[in-house]
Amino acid sequence: MGDDVDHQRVYTMVAALDYFYWVFGAWLGGTLGSILAIQIKGLAFAMTALFLVLALDQILKEKSHVSSVSGLVITVVCLALVGSTYFLLVPFRLFQRGNQTPRYIQGLREFLPGAIMVMLVVYCLRNVTWLSGNHGWPDLIACTLTILVHLKWRSLFASMIIGTTAYILMVNFVF
């Protein structure tokens, strides 16, 4: 932008348009969703694919994988101790409004992104029945495909779309 441009006005307009697009998109999606009422079995895998790709990006950026491995361990231990029903209540209880965030947590800013992304992936896969039914094959195949596509093209959208489409096709027509 040139010197004669009012930067504050441009930033305000961009923020206003972003907000408008978000509100309009949410309204349009809610309206069309209620009118069409289409249920696509397996579409929820899109969130798993998103968190998987974000976790993979964090892992690839890390010099040491302590953050990601600890996120995996902490999540598995917490799921084993409190179960998936109460899993999200633990952080809400620890970090209630009014409580001061502990200093050791504040010091983990560099550490937490990788750990959190891995935790979200594990949380998304918490209800997969690995020992019965289809033994989690659709999840395993779609996650692997999502990772491979992301490693090849480094495209968040391509990885999510290909992984989610594969998952939808598997749960609806294969398994």
Structure description:
The chain is mainly α. Helices cover 73% and strands 0% of the residues. It contains 8 helices and no strands. It has helices spanning 7-36, 45-61, 66-86, 89-94, 103-106, 112-124, 137-153, 156-174. Helix 2 (45-61) crosses helix 7. It is globular. The termini are far apart. The model has no long low-confidence stretch (mean pLDDT 89).
Brief digest:
The protein is mainly alpha-helical. Helices cover 73% and strands 0% of the residues.
Average pLDDT works out at: 89
Number of helices: 8
Alpha carbon gap, first and last residue? 54 Å
Percent strand: under 5%
The quaternary state of the protein chains shown equals: single chain
Q: Please tell me how large the radius of gyration is.
A: 20 Å
Secondary-structure-based class equals mainly alpha
User: What does the overall shape look like?
Assistant: globular
State the total count of DSSP E strands. 0
Q: Low-confidence parts lasting 5 or more residues at pLDDT below 50?
A: none
Helix/strand order, N-terminal first: HHHHHHHH
Largest beta-sheet details? none
Helix amount, in percent? over 70%
Throw out a few tags for this protein.
globular; 8 helices; mainly alpha; about 180 residues
Layout of strands and helices, then pairs:
Layout: H1 7-36, H2 45-61, H3 66-86, H4 89-94, H5 103-106, H6 112-124, H7 137-153, H8 156-174
